[in-house]
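debug: dumping io for the single-chain case to check the tokenizer round-trip. Nothing else runs in this session.
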Amino acid sequence: MTTAAFTPPFISPAELPAALREQGYAVLSPQGVSEWLGVPLTQLDALHADWNDLPADEYLKDGGRYRTRRHACFTVEADEEATLAQVPHRAHWQPVEYNALHGGMQRWFAPMLEATVAQPVWQRLLQQLGRASSEMRGAAQRWYVEAHQFRIDTAGGIGRPTPEGAHRDGVDLVAVALVGRRGIKGGETRVFEANGRRGERFTMTEPWTLLLLDDARVIHESTPIQPLEEGGEGWRDTLVITCRAEGFQGD
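debug: decoded output
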């Protein structure tokens, strides 16, 4: 279990497009996220209460009970306003080529709360991710967006943020935000070139640190978490949002 916490390689929001083009990933600090969205961090912090009431993930094939989650899907249009719309609730589906553990199955997770998706800061976040996806691909277009709220806990002694291991998601852009963590060690983020030898490792410890990934160019994973004290309980809360140009996977 890795216990050292390497500092994330933060960049400024102005450097984001170039970083995604040149290395396939970028990390914004909480202050950078606030600047990028044009909102105070207090608005993002207000979303965190949702993570205290996430239903259990009933699909874990390793038999674990360490993950709770909610899920919702949206479209972001290519117009100047980056118009956002929520689509009817649907299953999450991935091919086995991208998720060997849970691919090939329709997974119906509890929907995100209406009060959450109605928040202006939530809508602003998805709109900005749509714009970032268009900048990364060099063309404005409609984006099919899936959002996942996760809590990984250590009630069973160990929690696995990515039980499928290092992976790609089969989308264009992946965004991983740390929403909070308490009473744990581990949870190191690792990013590797999909077709190369270069890699980076760091630990996101500050709420609303944001990692953005070009899914075609890099693979990623998070290491397991354990409680800081034997017998103790802790958790790691994240928000994962994906943007895909060619419709939702499974359509």
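debug: round-trip ok. The first strand starts at residue 10 and ends at 11.
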